[in-house]
Amino acid sequence: MVGAFQGAGVVVTGAGGGIGAALARRFAAEGARVVVNDLDAERAKHVAEEVGGVAVPGDASAIVADARDALDGTVDMYCANAGVAFDGVDAGQALDEKAWATSWDVNVMAHVRAAHELLPAWLERGSGRFVSTVSAAGLLTMIGAAPYAVTKHGALAFAEWLSLTYRHRGVKVHAICPQGVRTDMLAATGSAGDLVLQPTAIEPEAVADALVKGIEEDRFLILPHPEVAAYYQARAGDPDRWLTGMNRIQQQWEENL
């Protein structure tokens, strides 16, 4: 895999900071030509200038055509990294229609729309790579964040579907599922994040390292926190026991609100 990213056209959405910026930096360092996308045009421009890439600001759902033009017509890898999170202590307080609609649009449908635009060219040439930043919440769940947990499950399901449908036609798919990562999004999770995510939080650069290693090993599921694999197995093996354990964490959180 030495030089595997040299000259590759890479798009990273939500790359104005956090995991996205770390991915942009890492792929640029590996020799890729990087498009930096973010809703915040100034942040996108800043990171693009830092990595020698091109800023394509705007809604991640609608930038594939502009990103392709910026890469001289070819997107080799698309990192669907942009995401949103909203808090909600219980089902009643989490029933915010706008929060659900925004979460579904950004965390799931942006991936669907991007894949729809990218797949024809990838299938025609027999190669392409789609990276979905899912979060361990997509494998497990997250207290106090119903729209986030549910839509991240949707993002993982879509990535799985892409992989099983197109892998024999040259399309590679990777799902990154970290737990806590020291970003603005983690800081915004409040007391729930402090309880569940902060103790084992890692830097965004560790996520980028894990992704590159996962690509080198041709793995679909990439776990920057390796312990998540055991949690995922426990959840599948005995759902009631796992839910009881998660409910204890929920109760612990409620006691400290």
Automatic annotation (TrEMBL):
Enzyme class, spelled out? oxidoreductase
PROSITE patterns, A to Z: ADH_SHORT (PS00061)
GO MF terms on file?
oxidoreductase activity
- Which keywords belong to this entry? Oxidoreductase
UniProt-listed SUPFAM superfamilies:
NAD(P)-binding Rossmann-fold domains
Documented EC number(s): 1.-.-.-
Could you confirm whether the keyword Ribonucleoprotein appears in this record?
Answer: no
* Pfam name, any one: adh_short
Name the protein family: Belongs to the short-chain dehydrogenases/reductases (SDR) family.
Name by which UniProt lists this protein:
SDR family oxidoreductase
Q: Tell me the lineage of the source organism.
A: Bacteria, Bacillati, Actinomycetota, Actinomycetes, Kitasatosporales
